[in-house]
């Protein structure tokens, strides 16, 4: 999001000569933004339980469907930096309405995809629209609401976005059971049509006439770096890219990120200022988020696949099995705040990161004869510690930004979250494919050993991230009091 966003105020409508929005229109606008955020976050997880059904319909293998998830989350990461600038330049109402329209058209096309390639391309289009729903919607709220109403307004918008990823797997499985996987995308169409009309009627339009020139060079360097590293990790298994090409893509990715760092030092208005990394809690929190979320991003993809492909669950049953994860996650959020106040961020994050890694690795012990109650306890334990991890990492990252770096820091944080989610599914898919080919015991009817090895690797990667949080000072305790509309559970 552009730095000019920071200076926006609720008087934007007055500066453009437009009448002040009524209380009714403000309430409707909050519901529009909240619904848009819900749609965006819901579609990041709703497809997970439907992947085997999609694979059967499209004539693909279930373990090679990760590109459907990666395409959406990676596109969102790519589009986040430009969304705020577009809203400043073209106006919040116009861009938000366009975002809903693109998201809806992408959803309709996804439902009518005939091949995996078509579905991935349409998911990219869906991700372009989805990426702009939250940043632009939040900016619209900040522009028209008075300062004393910022916190409750942003909190209201955040709640549906927290619920969406939690109910996504269960809702996806239910839709597959009562209809077909196509309805996972079709349900967005009527909501999107109503959203476009409501946005046109009720959302005030505001823009920033002093918008700075967009940092095109820095943006290109970032997106080439992100896409290259994703292609390098997923291309070997998904597209049979040769080892030499994978190596070249990794080198290109590293070179682009280094080049951006050198560019940001000299640029007058870089997309993300490197001064943000002078804030110790932000830099540690951001790096910790990037690597810890690789495991957390892999699990919503791996668990439904494990239950359906290896254990014979239906899509709906696999979705129901995700409910303990969501319930434990919601109930553990208050606990982590008390733990941070008592023990500090370093002790909580180091120990909890190891627990999350162990919880992930414990799925390597899954068997067909495992009692149901034990499986439910295992899922609930993972959901609880994983949710505590998100809350602790998010508050650590944002707590010391202050108003000066809030806009740019929040935007960079959102990008890292979506990139890590994409990398998590990429790594999980690559590991599954690799172990499927290497292990002689793995057959089409017995994929459990490949899942066991994948869960073990993902758990080790996550547990190793605790070393990043060990760099924190022991006396950092006070959580941020700002609302965190970006938190993804």
UniProtKB/TrEMBL annotation:
The keyword Cell membrane applies. The chain crosses the membrane at residues 28-47, 67-87, 94-114, 120-141, 153-175, 181-202, 214-233, 245-265, 277-295, 301-327, 348-366, 372-392, 412-438, 450-472. The keyword Phosphoprotein does not apply. It is found in: Cell membrane. Residues 1-21 are annotated as: Disordered. It is a multi-pass membrane protein. This is Drug resistance transporter, EmrB/QacA subfamily. It comes from Paraburkholderia phymatum (strain DSM 17167 / CIP 108236 / LMG 21445 / STM815) (Burkholderia phymatum).
């Amino acid at each position: 999001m552009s730095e000019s966003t920071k200076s926006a105020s609720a008087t934007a409508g007055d500066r453009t000569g437009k009448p002040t929005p009524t209380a009714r229109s403000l309430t409707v606008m909050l519901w529009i933004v909240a619904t848009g955020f819900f749609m965006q976050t819901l579609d990041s997880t709703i497809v997970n339980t439907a992947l085997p059904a999609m694979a059967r319909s499209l004539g693909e293998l279930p373990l090679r469907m990760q590109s459907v998830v990666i395409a959406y989350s990676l596109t969102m990461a790519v589009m986040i930096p430009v969304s705020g600038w577009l809203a400043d330049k073209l106006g919040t109402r116009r861009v938000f309405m366009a975002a809903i329209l693109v998201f809806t058209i992408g959803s309709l096309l996804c439902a009518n995809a005939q091949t995996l390639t078509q579905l991935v391309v349409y998911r990219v289009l869906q991700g372009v629209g989805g990426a702009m729903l939250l940043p632009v919607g939040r900016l619209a709220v900040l522009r028209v609401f008075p300062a004393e109403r910022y916190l409750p307004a942003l909190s209201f918008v955040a709640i549906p976005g927290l619920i969406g990823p939690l109910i996504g797997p269960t809702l996806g499985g239910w839709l597959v059971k009562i209809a077909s996987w196509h309805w996972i995308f079709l349900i967005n169409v009527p909501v999107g049509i109503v959203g476009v009309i409501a946005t046109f009627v009720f959302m005030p339009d505001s823009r920033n006439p002093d918008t700075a020139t967009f940092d095109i060079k820095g943006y290109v360097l970032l997106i080439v770096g992100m896409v290259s590293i994703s292609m390098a990790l997923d291309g070997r298994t998904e597209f049979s890219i040769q080892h030499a090409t994978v190596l070249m893509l990794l080198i290109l990715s590293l070179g682009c990120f280094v080049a951006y760092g050198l560019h940001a030092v000299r640029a007058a208005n870089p997309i993300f200022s490197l001064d943000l990394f002078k804030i110790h809690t932000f830099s540690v929190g951001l790096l910790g988020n990037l690597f810890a979320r690789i495991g957390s991003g892999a699990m919503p993809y791996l668990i439904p696949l494990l239950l359906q492909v290896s254990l014979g669950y239906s899509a709906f049953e696999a979705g129901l099995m995700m409910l303990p994860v969501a319930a434990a996650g919601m109930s553990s959020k208050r606990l982590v705040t008390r733990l941070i106040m008592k023990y500090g961020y370093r002790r909580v994050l180091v120990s909890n990161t190891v627990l999350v890694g162990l919880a992930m690795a414990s799925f390597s012990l899954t068997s067909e004869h495992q009692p149901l109650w034990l499986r439910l306890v295992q899922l609930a334990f993972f959901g609880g510690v994983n949710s505590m991890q998100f809350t602790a990492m998010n508050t650590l990252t944002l707590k010391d930004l202050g108003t000066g770096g809030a806009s740019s820091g929040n935007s960079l944080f959102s990008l890292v979250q979506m990139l890590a989610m994409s990398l998590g599914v990429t790594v999980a898919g690559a590991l599954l494919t690799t172990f499927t080919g290497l292990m002689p015991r793995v057959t089409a009817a017995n994929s459990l050993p490949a899942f066991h090895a994948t869960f073990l690797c993902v758990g080790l990667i996550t547990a190793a991230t605790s070393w990043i949080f060990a760099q924190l000072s022991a006396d950092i305790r006070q959580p941020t009091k700002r609302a965190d509309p970006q938190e993804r559970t």
